[in-house]
Design brief:
Layout: E1 8-11, H1 21-34, H2 41-45, H3 52-60, H4 69-81, H5 93-102, E2 106-109, H6 115-125, E3 133-134, H7 148-157, E4 164-168, H8 171-178, E5 184-187, H9 194-200, E6 204-206, H10 209-214, H11 220-223, E7 240-242, E8 248-251
Parallel strand pairs: 1-2, 1-4, 2-3, 4-5, 5-6
Antiparallel strand pairs: 7-8
Helix pairs in contact: 1-4
Length: about 250
């Protein structure tokens, strides 16, 4: 799609628009347990939002036997698939997408979920009529906190980093957006605290899509189409982002 002067909103989906964070946590816990890896659910939860490759590095260490990674991913996918027909949007997620589209903004689902999972997420949202572009894991060489999926979302939608806001629920979302200097709104409905999201560089933090919708008129999203307001409050150059596990995820230069 050719680039034009329109603005848009990029949305993470898992844990941001659809209530899946804890389903992924349980699915990874069981997949790891089946392979005799006993990892506390709290530790797994705080890694959700990374791609499976980086998640496994995080949980099992980079020196592990990677030959087993495919089996672990397959086990997770099979376990998670059992929930597909029961996936639910987070409060007023659908209405938030429609409100953004109603403001003339392109609505982009910047998800790194696998294509077969994306179909289930879109069915749960039931808002295809206002969604402009949807990505999947096939569009990114590296997973979050690398910004590849956001780059793909921008390229496919014809938008530029200067004319978008990203909405996500994890520090990995904030870190990925920060690498492209895209303002990121954080939502705590994925289980990451307000302090962690704000400390990672989120320009604003809301409880869930409903709270963002209620405050939309005063948000960074509304500022996209208001030349009198600034949408950006990037963290200072050189500031480190600390992930929920205590690791440094990014340094902005």
């Amino acid at each position: 799609m050719p680039t034009d002067n329109r603005c848009g909103v990029l949305f993470d989906v898992d844990g941001t628009l659809v209530d899946t964070t804890y389903l992924h946590t349980v699915s990874w816990w069981e997949a790891l347990r089946q392979a005799d890896h006993l990892v506390p659910m709290a530790t797994i939860h705080r890694s959700i939002g990374m791609g499976s490759d980086k998640l496994l590095d995080h949980l099992l260490g980079p020196e592990r036997d990677r030959d087993a990674d495919g089996k672990l991913r397959d086990a997770h996918d099979s376990l998670y698939a059992e929930y597909w027909e029961r996936l639910s949007p987070l409060p007023r997620a659908r209405e938030l997408l429609r409100a953004c589209a109603g403001r003339g903004l392109r609505v982009v689902l910047a998800t790194s979920a696998a294509e077969h999972e994306v179909a289930a997420l879109r069915a749960a949202l039931d808002a295809d009529d206002v969604i402009d572009t949807v990505t999947s894991s096939a569009d990114a060489q590296q997973s979050k906190p690398a910004p590849d999926i956001l780059v793909a979302a921008l390229e496919q939608s014809g938008l530029t980093a200067e004319r978008v806001v990203f909405v996500g629920d994890s520090v990995w979302d904030v870190a990925a957006a920060g690498k492209l200097n895209i303002p990121c709104i954080g939502l705590t409905c994925g289980g990451t605290s307000r302090g962690e999201l704000a400390g990672s560089g989120a320009v604003a933090v809301y409880d869930d899509p409903a709270a963002l919708l209620d405050g939309l008129a005063d948000s960074a999203i509304a500022a996209l189409t208001d030349p009198t307001r600034s949408v950006r409050a990037p963290r200072r150059a050189g500031a480190e982002v600390t992930g929920p596990t205590g690791d440094k995820t990014d340094t902005e230069v």
